[in-house]
Amino acid sequence: MRQLYIKQKVFSLSGKFTVKDQQEKDIYYVEGSFMQVPKTFSIRNAARDEVALITKKVFSFLPKFFVEVNGREVLTIKKEFSFLKARYSIDAAGIEVHGNWWDMDFQILQHGVIVGKVVKEWFTWGDSYKVQIMDEEMETIIIALVVAIDCVKADQAAASSAASN
């Protein structure tokens, strides 16, 4: 089992952060498109090759995010129509998320088998997540999923903030 850590930089306008291993070595680099339409997040490996891309769909009635890994679309996160509380669904072939993914405390399953776990680290400056990878072949998809969920949360927070002003 491999453990990776995602710690976002607080107040980072460009949306740049890294994914580190237990020795605090940078494993992935995540960079958001600042002031660009459509909004994207690129995930690059240590050699700086793009391994995943998250894109927010433009001109959609409800927010929708597409996640590509190695050039293939692997999952979609979309907001469901709801009057009371923000509800989202994750659509991916054979991949399920169980637990409270809004609070970043969940398991990722592929065909019923746990392939990864995510736990929010408390008492840290900014959002930090510990990501446990049980199936290393799924590592890039798991990292992309965690970043995509975080994008959805940030987008929802921005929308709520704009609506209350």
What would you note in describing this structure?
With about 160 residues, this protein is α+β, with helices and mostly antiparallel strands. The protein has one helix and twelve strands, in the order ββββββββββββα. The chain has a twelve-stranded antiparallel β-sheet, covered by helices on one side. Strand 2 (about 15-20) and strand 3 (about 25-30) form a beta hairpin. The longest helix is centred in the last third of the chain and has 26 residues, at about 140-165. The model has no long low-confidence stretch (mean pLDDT about 85).
Keywords:
twelve-stranded antiparallel beta sheet; 165 residues; globular; single chain; alpha+beta
Summarize the structure.
With 165 residues, the chain is α+β, with helices and mostly antiparallel strands. The protein has one helix at 139-164, and strands at 2-8, 17-21, 26-32, 40-44, 50-56, 64-69, 72-80, 87-92, 95-100, 105-110, 113-121, 128-133. The mean pLDDT is 83.
